[in-house]
């Protein structure tokens, strides 16, 4: 992509940004309302507008090479993404659920659900240093893959069929089956093509004997030598029906002319020249050419004619193919234009080749970013060096002249010199800002000091008591104001409970800091870049005027403390001379002490945890974690590989029918994507930890691998099987090592498979030897509590039996919980279609609707495993004769030993109960639904009484 294309796209992005800000201004003009449905529509519509804007800003940030403009776009992208997440969180708080539905806003804006799906940001993955990247790449081959404690996980069942182990008695020969199939297909096509041409030749000789057997000519080919050459390695065209040649096509003394399909070997086209006009009045004697020309000249003329004939034939062949090519192009052009007019083709739609070329161009442009960054840093350093060399002495002279003028002004008006500002206060910058005392203020201060010395002890005591009383009155007033504010908040909460919450769009609850940052950034950009033509700057060089101004200010700040130290001595000399003139005793100025900053909330400094591995290198720690199987590799998966559909009827059920519809599996993808936005280079919020809940085979391990792959994270495995060999006394050291390496190798993901085992209510007898709860006792204190919000470290847990754990400790360690929904009709149909589409021989007309209805509730791993096991190699070979039926797939579940059944409602209810206890929003929603049911019951009771 060219720079002009990116500039045009950035201009379009600015127009979209202005449109969104205009809509924000209109929203702030709305009157406060208590209608929750109206507020939900407003916020969801704002969210739908921000999603495409964030995509456009992400792409601009990804493709912009000019460093100064990229910095502006980065700030806008960060603020816009943060605003989008805030609006999404607001919708979740209003619906009291992680699963939100905004179909009303989509209908209003004429969008589809795919238009507001969160996409993988362009700033993924976060770049590491070359040293750490090389360390990870060097050890990637020796790492063990992540394993799930459940053998029915989706990640294991979606693989291809396992091959039998090789026989040690036979050498292993790797066959390129794709190449073999291609060669066999080409040989078959060649054999049939040769047979087709032979049949056409036979047909010509049989149907057109007159054309094939004309009058003989003298120069005809008499005997054409033909020999059969057999090559031992030549592929035999078998099985092919052989053509029987029962005629003599090497006909002697026959002139072969005008062959419609086939021309035999050795045939030469005869050129018939026009006879010259005969002169009747003066007849000339006819002399044969043979008698006039010798034999050598006749042979030469025949060869020339043959060459000319060959050239003419070649020219005609080229013209014929060129005309055919032009005609095909014309027909394709007409067909395309007709389809565009009829609306069958979108001219802006990208084809597969165009997509690939655009992605390649974007990747090549992205690789040039470090080159522009280095050039910008070099330009900054060179400019600073130039300013220091050429303008440094003049800057120091200007600073000293300004301070000396301050000395003179102060002496002329106050006949004294003010205290020289300390460096920690800001130095003589305070003089420029006007934050020092004026001569009049200085004289007033000196007068008050003189009067203070004349006061008696009783007067001083009374004034001290008065000041003390004034302070006490101020404290009482502050306490009263705080109590009034608390009382006001209490009244507002009681009013909200009675009448409902009032939503004011002008409050910071809606007009957040992210929105203000967007407004300020775009206003500053329009002011700074107003006179810069972005379309003409093809080289995308930095703007040196801004660099010069910044470096001037920086050099000025660096040189001012040096000048201050010199002029501080001058001030002392002037003060000494003034004291000598006034015949006063000179007292050197005492430096003012810097005020101590408050340390923490209660003035206590937080103690940093000691580094237990300070004497060890990063390589040794990394190798030790690999040896203990803590650092693992993972399969390259994507979050979009998690197959599932959306619940399209949930919006009406939740907002109009006041029901609580079940979520669908497709919504899990969007939720996890939004949780990962903070794992990139932009400073966006993210959870410290979350836990995936669901039955076995629902793809929890696959999602963990997808999270690692999307963020290019290093995976630390802290499952029970990994931690079991570590003694209890060494666990704190192990946690310290893991946290230290996780910070060094950011982004990192810490995975705990079957996390409920760390918080068992009662340890099963089979697992007592592993002591699974020893890690759960120190997990929060040693790991989760020490992870900072801005660190790219994420703790991910999975659980298939969460009800066996203590809810309090489990909830304390994981910030968010996500329950994977049961498979419904839409998700099951997508799973069957995905599984069957990989098998050759299954048509698209296979009826999946009844099969999807019957298999609702089956785990994705069960469905994919059913297809892989049912359609084995032998069964796929018989598909042409015996087509696949839905009954055959259902029989697989019933004929297994033991039979496979979907998860029952009673078993899944255990997950729902735990989810409502552990997740904050689910807990609040359950409470709200109980209140709503109680109100409906009361209303029905009143109506029943009235009827009686």
UniProtKB/TrEMBL annotation:
Q: Where is this region: Disordered?
A: 146-174, 278-305, 465-498, 583-611
Q: Low complexity compositional bias: what residue ranges?
A: 148-158
Q: Composition bias, kind Basic residues: at what positions?
A: 583-607
Q: Which residues form the ATPase AAA-type core domain?
A: 691-804
What SUPFAM superfamilies does the database record attribute to this sequence? Answer: P-loop containing nucleoside triphosphate hydrolases
| Source superkingdom | Eukaryota
Q: What is this protein called?
A: ATPase AAA-type core domain-containing protein
